[in-house]
Each structure stands twice: as C-alpha cells, then as structure tokens.
C-alpha cells in the first residue's frame, strides 16, 4: 500500500470519529452510489455464497463484552455494541461485507491504518464502485464497523449518532442507476425494521434526495440507517453508506 493512500485513509478515519460524539479519536464517514432494483423483502441480511477474493472469517473469535460506554456505543454500526468477538479489523470488515451488507463476491483491500485503534478498508463489488468501510477497536478490545462511505451518496440526515424515531427523515445527494437509492433502517440485531426508496440523480452529477422512512421502532438500543445502490447489470449491491443511530429519539 502506498504511503499516500495510507495517509488519506488516516485522515478519513480521523474526521469520522470526531463526528461520532467524540467516541473515538479519528474517523470520517462520507457516502455511496449504484443502481436499480431494490430487494423485495425486508428480512434480516443473509450471507452470500461466493467471494472474489479469500475473505477473513466472519466468526467472532473471543467472548463478547457485556456492554460498551454510551459514547462508544453511539458510534457502532456492526455488530451490536458489546457483542463483537472480532479480534482483528479484517474479520470485522469481512463480517460486515458478507453477512450484514450482503455484497456479492466483495473484493476487500488491505487494511489502511489511521491511528493505533482505527482504520479503513475499501470494498469493491461489480466493477469500479467502491465503499470505504471504517473500523475501530473499542474499549472491550474488540473490533467494530463504525460506518461506511462513498462519494456517490452524500448523506445530510440523519447524522451519525442521532437518536431517531419513526418515521425518520433522510436527505442528501446521490447519483445512481435511475437515481434509485434504497434506504433501510436496521435494528440492534441487524434486521430490517423499515425500507423505502428515495430518488437522487440518474447521473452524471449528484442530485438531491429526501424522504421519510417508516419503521418498526424498538424504542431503545443501537442500529443504523443504510443507503444502498444496486447494479443495472444484475441487481447486485454496488455501494452502501451506513450511519450509526440510536432508537427512542
């Protein structure tokens, strides 16, 4: 990995963690793009059968901690706060890419370290569309995903760490196939609590999107709002922006 790329990764991670309620030192989520057909069901994510490159095991290797401090928990997307047994960043991003986001045959880059406890990976699926996944080692010494970004989807709301209730207002700018961006609200266990499409730009430039997404509100706990785009070729997931949120807002 070139030095310039590592430094760029470090800068990105530094910005995110400042935004996530001061829970960690560096980090900065941005946002993704992609395409057309959205998944018809709203069930909990599964696990694709094939990968383009050998992936690290997504199985936690250590017993999870009972909890995390509130400030850290507010920054977590995957897995649930205090429930990670991932002992290294590669395992955490592998689980996120295949089991949580459900990329088909994702290609995962080498780890790009930010500070001593955080960094990022690039996840590519279906060509040149890239999602940057941000990871962090929390105070329980386990690794978590704290967000994902792509330049093709710029999310203005909700902000990272926001407390939300149903319906949640979403907004920002995106470029995608037919302008279609699917928004999902994920619960503490990763299940889909609500899903609706919003429309950005069909290209070539970013265009505004907004909407109100109704969901089954668990009333407490941590989750995430995901913004997903899909391939015009085969309907597979191309990019995802994941924003950590809390329930009961």
Topology at a glance:
Layout: H1 3-19, H2 70-73, H3 89-100, E1 107-108, E2 112-113, E3 118-124, E4 130-137, E5 143-149, E6 153-157, E7 162-164, E8 168-174, E9 180-186, E10 192-199, E11 207-213, E12 222-230, E13 237-247
Parallel strand pairs: 7-13
Antiparallel strand pairs: 1-3, 2-3, 3-4, 4-5, 6-8, 8-11, 9-10, 9-12, 12-13
Shape: globular
Percent range for helical residues?
10-25%
* Distance between the amino and carboxyl termini: 42 Å
Put simply, the count of helices is 3
Task: Sum this structure up briefly.
This protein is mainly β and 249 residues long. It has three helices and 13 strands.
Task: Please describe what this structure looks like.
The chain is mainly beta and 249 residues long. The N and C termini lie far apart (42 Å). 13% of the residues lie in helices and 33% in strands. Strand 12 (222-230) and strand 13 form a beta hairpin.
List descriptors.
single chain, 249 residues, mainly beta, five-stranded mixed β-sheet, 3 helices, 13 strands
């Amino acid at each position: 990995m070139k030095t310039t790329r590592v430094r760029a990764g470090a800068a990105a991670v530094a910005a995110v963690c400042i935004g996530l309620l001061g829970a960690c030192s560096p980090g900065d989520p941005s946002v993704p793009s992609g395409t057309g057909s959205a998944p018809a069901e709203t069930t909990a994510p599964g696990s694709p059968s094939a990968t383009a490159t050998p992936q690290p095991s997504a199985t936690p290797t250590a017993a999870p901690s009972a909890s995390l401090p509130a400030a850290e928990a507010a920054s977590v997307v995957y897995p649930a706060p205090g429930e990670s047994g991932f002992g290294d960043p590669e395992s955490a991003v592998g689980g996120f890419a295949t089991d949580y986001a459900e990329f088909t045959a994702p290609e995962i880059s080498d780890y790009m370290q930010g500070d001593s406890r955080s960094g990022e990976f690039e996840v590519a699926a279906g060509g040149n569309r890239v999602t940057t996944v941000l990871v962090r080692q929390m105070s329980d010494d386990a690794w978590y995903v704290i967000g994902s970004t792509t330049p093709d989807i710029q999310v203005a709301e909700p902000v990272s760490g926001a407390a939300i209730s149903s319906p949640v207002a979403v907004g920002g700018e995106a470029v995608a196939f037919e302008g279609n961006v699917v928004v999902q609200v994920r619960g503490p266990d990763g299940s889909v609590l609500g899903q609706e499409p919003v429309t950005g730009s069909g290209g070539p430039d970013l265009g505004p999107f907004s909407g109100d997404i109704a969901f089954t509100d668990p009333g407490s706990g941590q989750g995430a709002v995901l913004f997903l785009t899909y391939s015009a070729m085969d309907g597979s997931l191309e990019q995802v922006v994941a924003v950590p949120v809390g329930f009961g807002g």
